């Protein structure tokens, strides 16, 4: 059985503890003295990319042992890390940016430490999703974080369809080479007037906050060279608008139109116009 709680903490880093250390998401000054102390004094640092972690270490004059721990090698590395922890060694886990365990294999390691009754402590730090959310001006009391959307178009469209129906604010990451495609998909499912804020290069020298609605953001990026890392914050659907979408009835009517001889595309277009919805929303009811 796992321990219920940690108590009576000693001087850090303590023996046999896995430390999840928050690191900067862009500006190297955004790191706590506690985090630096942990990185300097643990037995070793497990990091997503040793080159990224070395930038922090070089800036702050830290010298320590690094091992690679990423999506490719995590399954083979976990037993090694667990063994070190059981021997009483303290280990720091860091990601390329922000808090480890979010969109990286850190969660697998934490799950395994729990199975072995080993203690885990988080050293809080920056988080791109929350930094974007609080900077967006969009409702922040309830939100959903989607990480990266699927790469495959059919799965991506399904994810965008679900996001378009959500009343809560949605936050997700996007790669530069897929940004325009994603914005186009958002317009197809949400319409061009839905409020959105796109953040580029958060905390860095050329940080940008773009947009008021989807149409505005699409126009901004139309002739731009798209570089950097993007975090997208999308306002949820208005609850009154959501109530207007009777999915079972729409689905039945769509199927009836198809049985009557209309193509899926034509039937979707007809219903979308009739119900004042986007064609993509109707299309994805099938």
TrEMBL record:
Residues 18-216 form the Tetrapyrrole methylase domain. GO terms for cellular component: cytoplasm. The keyword Kinase does not apply. Keywords: Cytoplasm, Methyltransferase, rRNA processing, S-adenosyl-L-methionine, Transferase. It is an enzyme of class 2 (transferase). Its EC number is 2.1.1.198. InterPro entries: 4pyrrol_Mease, 4pyrrol_Methylase_sf, 4pyrrole_Mease_sub1, 4pyrrole_Mease_sub2, rRNA_ssu_MeTfrase_I, SAM_MeTrfase_RsmI_CS. GO terms for molecular function: rRNA (cytosine-2'-O-)-methyltransferase activity. Pfam families: TP_methylase (PF00590). It is found in: Cytoplasm. It catalyses: cytidine(1402) in 16S rRNA + S-adenosyl-L-methionine = 2'-O-methylcytidine(1402) in 16S rRNA + S-adenosyl-L-homocysteine + H(+). Belongs to the methyltransferase superfamily. RsmI family. This is Ribosomal RNA small subunit methyltransferase I. It comes from Prochlorococcus marinus str. GP2. The gene is rsmI.
């Amino acid at each position: 059985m796992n321990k219920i709680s940690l108590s009576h903490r000693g001087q850090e880093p303590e023996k046999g503890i896995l430390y999840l250390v928050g690191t900067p998401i862009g500006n190297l000054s955004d790191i706590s003295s506690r985090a630096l102390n942990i990185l300097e004094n643990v037995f070793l640092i497990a990091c997503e990319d040793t080159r990224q972690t070395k930038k922090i270490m070089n800036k702050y004059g830290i010298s320590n042992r690094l091992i690679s721990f990423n999506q490719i090698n995590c399954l083979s590395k976990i037993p090694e890390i667990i063994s070190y922890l059981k021997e009483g060694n303290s280990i720091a886990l860091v990601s390329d940016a922000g808090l480890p365990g979010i969109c990286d294999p850190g969660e697998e390691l934490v799950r395994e430490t729990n199975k072995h009754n080993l203690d885990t402590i988080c050293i809080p730090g920056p988080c791109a999703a929350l930094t974007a959310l609080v900077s967006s001006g969009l409702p922040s009391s309830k939100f959903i974080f989607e990480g990266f959307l699927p790469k495959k178009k059919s799965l991506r469209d399904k994810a965008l369809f679900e996001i378009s129906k959500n009343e809560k604010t949605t936050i997700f990451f996007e790669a530069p080479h897929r940004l325009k495609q994603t914005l186009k998909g958002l317009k197809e499912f949400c319409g061009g007037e839905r409020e959105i804020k796109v953040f580029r290069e958060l905390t860095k020298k050329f940080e940008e906050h773009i947009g008021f609605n989807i149409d505005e953001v699409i126009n901004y990026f139309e002739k731009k060279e798209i570089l950097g890392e993007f975090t997208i914050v999308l306002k949820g659907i208005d609850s009154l608008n959501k109530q207007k979408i009777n999915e079972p009835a729409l689905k039945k009517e769509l199927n009836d139109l198809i049985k009557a001889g209309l193509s899926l595309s034509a039937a979707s277009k007809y219903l979308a116009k009739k119900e004042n919805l986007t064609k993509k929303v109707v299309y994805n009811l099938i």
